[in-house]
Amino acid sequence: MFNQELQKLGAEHSAIRELFEYAIKRKKEIGEENVFDFSLGNPNVPAPACVTEELLRLINEMPPEKLHAYSSSAGIQEVRAAIAQYIENSFGVPMSEDLICMTCGASASLVSVLSALVLPGEEVILPAPYFPEYTVFIGQSGGKMVPVPTDEKFHLDLSAIERAITEKTKAILINSPNNPTGAVYTRGELEGLAALLERVNRTRQEPIFLLSDEPYRELCYGEKPTFPPTVYPHTVVMYSFSKVISLPGERIGYVAVPPACYHAQDLFHAVRGAARHHGFVCAPTLFQRVVAHCQGMTSDLEIYRRNRDLLYGALTDMGYSCTVPEGAFFLFVKALEQDAKAFCARAKRHELLLVPSDSFGTKGYVRISYCVKRETIERSLPAFRALIQEYNG
Ligand code: PLP
């Protein structure tokens, strides 16, 4: 007999992974160029040159036994210092290397922070649509997920958030730039959220924490996103280098607890304890060094911007309805029938692999990941046209 809950979790594929596996099979059958796989958020733009340069330098200059050694569980001290310095310089928020923990990407950051912070039965407010794995990460902490709808442009609905707050609310988990909608929360909207939380905090012993999941932080097409600790001190930042410098397979990111956060040191110990509890001995040391060197760098974002413009322009011209993504690399499009899964099944017949919004906690939309080759988008357009014509009769 095994843990039934985990057995079920391991046996069931996420909707996204399932499509991705299907795409591999289908490409073998009909040729790669004839399958339009928009399922996975796997960056298609190469990592910036600084990654390879630093890798080569480290391999050539550092003794291997040092290069590949364990680091302290929170990460290499110079790396944490470099990250704290970068945050201070870029955002003007005081940060201490002693409150930075290097992690195996945003997923490990989320699991560690949620386990550290949320006690069984406590609630985590989640603006919907949201990244599906949050369900798993919050679930393992014993916390309760409280999804709250966003407004018609997928920005925060502060009244809905206020209505969702109870005495059990421990945190609100935000993700901007957002997967799956591409929304980037404005400074004004984050200030509004901070004001709301501060107001509620006056009636409580402990503040409500803001958890900021930021794997797309620099992946933004307009103004730079606001760094949430600049508006609300009780924010825990969970960052990842997976998307911004295209290193998803290397599993590297960090948790940063601003010194101004409520009981910052104790919370940080709990995060380290949670990482230990989950068997994260240390984050990959080679890539800790690489990312410390590449902070602030990005893959070529113009490629994503051009993909966004091409796809958004073409689909809206055809009659599809969607808001223009302000960041990340996803287009969130209204399905042409109420049941997004049924719509995706029809799209699949045109070799268009789209993710129904149900797993993002919202009905009636599909997510299109445009981190793909431009030719894939160009070649897919007749299929999108044929699909909408099927509905228009
Ligand atoms: N959070 C969001 C919103 C994401 O979209 C992803 C990955 O797609 C993650 C977290 C996990 O990222 P990582 O590869 O750093 O674990």
List the helices and strands and how they pair.
Blueprint: H1 4-11, H2 15-30, E1 36-37, H3 49-61, H4 64-67, H5 77-91, E2 100-103, H6 105-117, E3 123-128, H7 133-141, E4 144-149, H8 158-164, E5 169-174, H9 187-201, E6 209-214, E7 235-240, E8 253-256, H10 264-277, H11 285-293, H12 301-318, E9 330-334, H13 340-349, E10 352-353, E11 355-356, E12 365-369, H14 374-392
Parallel strand pairs: 1-10, 3-4, 3-5, 5-6, 6-7
Antiparallel strand pairs: 2-8, 7-8, 9-12, 11-12
Helix pairs in contact: 3-11, 5-11, 6-7, 6-10, 12-14
Bound molecules: pyridoxal-5'-phosphate (PLP).
Task: Name its key features.
single chain; 393 residues; alpha/beta; Aspartate Aminotransferase, domain 1; Aspartate Aminotransferase, domain 2; 2 domains; seven-stranded mixed beta sheet; three-stranded antiparallel beta sheet; 14% strand; binds pyridoxal-5'-phosphate
Q: How would you describe what is shown here?
A:
This protein has 393 residues and is of the alpha/beta class. It folds into two domains: 4-48 and 299-392, Aspartate Aminotransferase, domain 1 (Alpha-Beta Complex); 50-293, Aspartate Aminotransferase, domain 2. It has 14 helices and twelve strands. The chain has helices at 4-11, 15-30, 49-61, 64-67, 77-91, 105-117, 133-141, 158-164, 187-201, 264-277, 285-293, 301-318, 340-349, 374-392; strands spanning 36-37, 100-103, 123-128, 144-149, 169-174, 209-214, 235-240, 253-256, 330-334, 352-353, 355-356, 365-369. The strands form three sheets. The chain has a seven-stranded mixed beta sheet with strand order 2-8-7-6-5-3-4, with helices on both faces. Strands 9-12-11 form a three-stranded antiparallel beta sheet. The longest helix has 19 residues, at 374-392. The protein starts with a helix and ends with a helix. The model has no long low-confidence stretch (mean pLDDT 96).
